[in-house]
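Hi team,

Below is the intake form for RNA pseudouridylate synthase from Bifidobacterium actinocoloniiforme DSM 22766. Please confirm the fields before the structure is written into the shared record.

FORM ID: S-0412
PROTEIN: RNA pseudouridylate synthase
ORGANISM: Bifidobacterium actinocoloniiforme DSM 22766
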Amino acid sequence: MAGPFERHRWVTSEPEIPFELGVLYEDERIIVVDKPHFLPTTPRGMWYRSSALMRLRERLGEPQITPAHRLDRATAGVLVFVRDPSVRAAYQMLFQRRQVDKVYECLAPARPLTTPATGTIARLAPPAPFPLLRRSYIDKHPGHMQARELRAQPNASTLIDLAGELPAFNLAGGRGNATSSGPTFALDSSGGCLPGEGTTGRASTPYRAYRLHPYTGKTHQLRVHMASLGLPILGDDLYPIVINRPYDDFSHPLQLVARSLSFTDPITGQPMRFQSRVPLCL
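The structure came back. Fields below:
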């Protein structure tokens, strides 16, 4: 019987996503990759061969490979695939039961927090603003680009902390006073940062790195929670407002990386930890 991805319609022409899918670890049961920005986890819409799943299947000649979990197309970082069908459920259940420790990093504005319209903020080391626990009810309807926060019992929780200051940096790449415009950036084929041309339109904003620990896994949870605090993630084209860009414009990657992932291997009982090498780029 064919799996769900074998039944997916064949895309005869699709844009090439010019970033490599690096492998962090593999054994006879799993393959852990370092997914670049823009590459979807599985086939969707116009993307079929340009997905992490299909690239792995074609590269290794193993059509039975299946994702243990997913990352948004815009998010880079650690992603786990299962290559042995007999243990697929064991690894997938780790993620479904939230037995995996996930740490994300992002770049967002270095400015005071705003008060969200819904949900709660709990400062964990008052009076310092960070770390904090952000909780809200997130609702995402199929066919809607954005998720919404509603006035209801929270179903999404994120621990937000600072992840090392970027001292007085702005989008122009310099220190001290911000300029009115600055260069964009691009990524090389391995996910490293390259300078680009043009302006971002946001070069006057200083940015710093944040560390995010999601305790739940709602769609766009980290992007929604950061935007609700007045700290939208750099490069976010959905929050707080939708920015329409050409499908083949890879010059503004979302500065959100699934930095590390840890769990106890359900087969061997050994502790496993993987760390992404994808950089955050100003």
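SUMMARY LINE: The chain is about 10% helix and 30% strand.

Thanks, M.
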